[in-house]
Structure formats: C-alpha cells, structure tokens
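Data card: per-record layout.
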Amino acid sequence: MKKEFVLQYKDFEEGTIDGLLKKIKSTSGVRLSELKVMDLFDIDPGEGVYIFIDSKNKLFHIGKVSSMSFVERIPHHFDIRKGAWMNRLLKIICEKHWNVEINDKNLYKAAKFAFAELKLILINFNNREKIERIERLLRSTGEPLNRFKSFKLKDATIKLKDY
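The structure for this 163-residue chain is written out next.
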C-alpha cells in the first residue's frame, strides 16, 4: 500500500531545498486524528525527518529520527506529562503557538489541538548520514515554530545531495 504522506529522500536528493519545501507543502499529509501506529509500521527503514503541518500546509514542527524508527518516535510527542522529555511538539504548541505555561493541563489541551488540527508528513531516508543535515535545512528555511534562527542558508540552489 502506497502511503501518500511518506516521501522518499532519494526522490529529491538531486533537487534543491526549495524544491523539497514545495513538495512538502503540496503533500496533503495524514491527519493525526486518523493516523494509526500501524500506518508507521512497515516504512523501510523508517528513519528520517518528520513534519507536522497545519490545515493550511504551513510547516508547524520539524524533527528527525535516526536512533529509533518513526513508529517509536512519533507517539512520544503525545505524552502529556510535563516531565516527559520527548513531547517537544506539545511543548512548542504551549510555548510558541499559545504562549502559555507548560503544565499537564495545557499539554493535554495541546495534544487535543494537535490531533484535531495537524497532519504528518514523513521523509524516509536510506542514508542515515543525511538526516540531521536535511532536518537542519528544513528547520532553518521552512520557518516552523521550532526553526533555527541563527542558521542562514547561503545558497538554496545547491543540490540536497551536495550539502
């Protein structure tokens, strides 16, 4: 079964970061309210970059997974305990989207918001060495809530494989 929310990095490595961003923004993604863990199960190798987007296909949060798989990492974002350390999406919703205190009550509300409003897109990599670099480029150029403010891309026309 082809998963419309999964992009293969190898299909874009000859292109530029701008081309990849256009493809991401034109991909519908899968609504978090409709996503099942099983949907993440048979993605091979299941490592790469994940992107949460809003209903207008604006990049909301970008992360990477290389030491575990998508099926392990994505659910960790929805831990509603303040002391959890892998629920960065919920903490960013509280801190940067709503500007409210991070506490269990607000994290619960953030999780409800995410399931109702956000979608997921995955970029699956066969080359683990490129994951961190491409995630960094997407976070700096795609302007998600967790963007890198100090990193500036000098040349957006360089092919992704040459970064």
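Known properties of this structure: The longest strand covers residues 59-65. The radius of gyration is 15 Å.

See the next section for split statistics.
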